[in-house]
């Protein structure tokens, strides 16, 4: 979506590294891995704690699909998932349908008598999944008689390339792109660690949408994106030596929120605070108008209760910033018992692209309820609009990360 307005990464959830001193963090040519403390005047102590190699991340790009279209322009092989034995190979995979069949899977003209496979292109040739190009390999898992799970397994930095153009926008300035690269890489690593500890998902680590980060394969990848990822190769933000969940969002409205208040994440690098760089952003102030009857039906569906005509909407609890925690909504069906609705639930129900954040006031105007709000997204971590403005004013990646993840440390984890 160009710029992801939420979570993260995410819709709710959406550093220049190189040769000029002060412009880039870590991994300078000829040096070992550097750990840069993002506080004024700090010198980066050296550490030697890299991964053995760049990790592969598994991205869910199709869940519960009945079939999909596959095409590979060059040589390919099919193996059983996580096993080296080759089940099939060819010089080119002509455009064809992959689907579940009685015995296992049908891959175009090639039957495969396995329920879990990897499709591996040779020579870094992209795989076309329903026409979209993806680097790396495709894992296909038959979930049931006619449903498939499709996963793109890809080297981490290729994944980061496919994220940052779809999150902050490929046309952003280098410092903003690099800050997004570090934040997105860190977010992905934190998701991998969390998922593998919980073992909730056996076959994938992250989603390709705003439940994780917006990833579209090679779409949105250009020279500027590649340069930003290469400049920050392997770099991640850490707190006390461990990666943390580097949330980000589109527009904070001039105030970022503590992670513990929104997500229950009490990492000190997510403390939140004033953001003067976002004060003039286009979406700092917005109005959203919804018909009274539409709101009534939405609340009935959300709460599962009979809801009459809405007579009053009162902010029952809010955070110091003004972001709403809970609303008290009176209606004619049960005037003695107002509904108590969490603001995040109402936002999800009305649509996060319409009710852009939970920082709002609300009033009745004729047949409409009008929300007057600030910002877009959850407000935790890096504000992308603020980061872009900082970059436009000559601020470095290090300064952007310091603004939004104070006290975090940048650590290069692989070469």
Map the helices and strands.
Blueprint: E1 35-37, E2 56-65, E3 67-72, E4 76-80, E5 86-90, E6 93-100, E7 105-107, E8 110-112, E9 116-121, E10 127-129, E11 132-134, E12 137-142, E13 148-155, H1 156-169, H2 174-198, E14 206-207, H3 223-231, E15 235-239, E16 242-243, E17 248-249, E18 255-256, H4 259-262, E19 273-274, E20 286-291, H5 292-303, E21 310-318, E22 324-331, E23 339-342, H6 343-350, E24 360-365, E25 368-373, E26 382-383, H7 384-392, H8 397-404, E27 409-412
Parallel strand pairs: 2-14, 17-26
Antiparallel strand pairs: 1-27, 2-13, 3-6, 3-10, 4-5, 4-9, 6-7, 7-8, 9-12, 10-11, 12-13, 15-16, 15-27, 18-19, 20-25, 21-22, 22-23, 24-25
Helix pairs in contact: 1-2, 1-3, 2-3, 2-7, 2-8, 5-6
3D architecture notes:
There is one protein chain. The chain contains eight helices and 27 strands. α2 (174-198) packs across α8 (397-404) and α5 crosses α6. The protein has helices at residues 156-169, 174-198, 223-231, 259-262, 292-303, 343-350, 384-392, 397-404; strands at residues 35-37, 56-65, 67-72, 76-80, 86-90, 93-100, 105-107, 110-112, 116-121, 127-129, 132-134, 137-142, 148-155, 206-207, 235-239, 242-243, 248-249, 255-256, 273-274, 286-291, 310-318, 324-331, 339-342, 360-365, 368-373, 382-383, 409-412. The strands form seven sheets. Strands 5-4-9-12-13-2-14 form a seven-stranded mixed beta sheet. It has a six-stranded antiparallel beta sheet with strand order 8-7-6-3-10-11, with no helix packed on it. A hairpin with a 7-residue loop joins β22 and β23 (339-342). Residues 1-5 and 9-50 have low confidence and may be disordered. It has three domains: 35-53 and 158-275 and 380-412, no CATH class; 67-146, no CATH class; 286-373, no CATH class. It is α+β, with helices and mostly antiparallel strands and 415 residues long. It is globular, with a radius of gyration of 23 Å. The longest helix is centred in the middle third of the chain and has 25 residues, at 174-198.
């Amino acid at each position: 979506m160009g710029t992801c307005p939420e979570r993260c990464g995410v819709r709710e959830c959406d550093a220049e590294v190189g040769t000029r001193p002060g412009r880039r963090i870590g991994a300078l040519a000829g040096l070992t891995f550097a750990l840069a403390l993002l506080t004024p005047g700090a010198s980066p102590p050296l550490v030697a704690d890299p991964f053995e190699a760049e990790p592969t991340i598994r991205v869910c790009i199709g869940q519960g699909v009945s079939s999909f279209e596959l095409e590979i322009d060059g040589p390919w092989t099919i193996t059983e998932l996580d096993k080296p034995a080759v089940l099939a190979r060819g010089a080119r995979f002509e455009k064809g349908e992959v689907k579940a069949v009685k015995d296992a899977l049908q891959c175009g003209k090639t039957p495969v008598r396995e329920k879990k496979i990897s499709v591996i292109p040779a020579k870094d040739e992209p795989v076309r999944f329903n026409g979209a190009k993806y680097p790396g390999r495709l894992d296909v898992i038959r979930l049931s008689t006619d449903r498939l799970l499709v996963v793109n397994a890809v080297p981490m930095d290729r994944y980061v390339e496919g994220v940052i153009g779809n999150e902050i926008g490929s046309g952003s300035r280098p410092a903003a792109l690099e800050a997004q690269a570090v934040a997105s890489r860190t977010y992905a690593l934190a998701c991998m660690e969390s998922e593998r500890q919980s073992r909730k998902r056996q076959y994938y680590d992250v989603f390709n949408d705003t439940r994780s980060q917006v990833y579209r394969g090679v779409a949105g990848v250009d020279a500027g994106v590649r340069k930003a990822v290469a400049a920050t190769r392997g770099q991640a933000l850490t707190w006390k030596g461990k990666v943390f969940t580097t949330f980000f969002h589109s527009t904070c409205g001039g105030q970022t929120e503590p992670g513990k208040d929104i997500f229950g994440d009490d990492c000190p690098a997510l403390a939140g605070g004033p953001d003067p760089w976002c004060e003039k952003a286009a979406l700092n102030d917005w109005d959203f108008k919804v018909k009274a009857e539409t709101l009534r039906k939405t609340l009935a569906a959300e709460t599962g209760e009979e809801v009459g005509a809405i007579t009053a909407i009162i902010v029952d609890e809010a955070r110091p910033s003004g972001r709403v925690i809970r609303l008290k909504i009176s209606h004619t069906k049960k005037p003695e018992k107002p509904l108590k609705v969490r603001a995040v639930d109402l936002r999800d129900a009305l649509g996060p692209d319409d009710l852009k954040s939970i920082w709002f006031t609300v009033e009745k105007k004729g047949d409409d309820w009008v929300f007057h709000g600030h910002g877009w997204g959850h407000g935790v971590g890096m504000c992308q609009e603020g980061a872009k403005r900082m970059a436009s004013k000559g601020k470095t990646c290090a300064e952007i990360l310091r603004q939004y993840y104070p006290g975090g440390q940048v650590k290069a984890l692989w070469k």
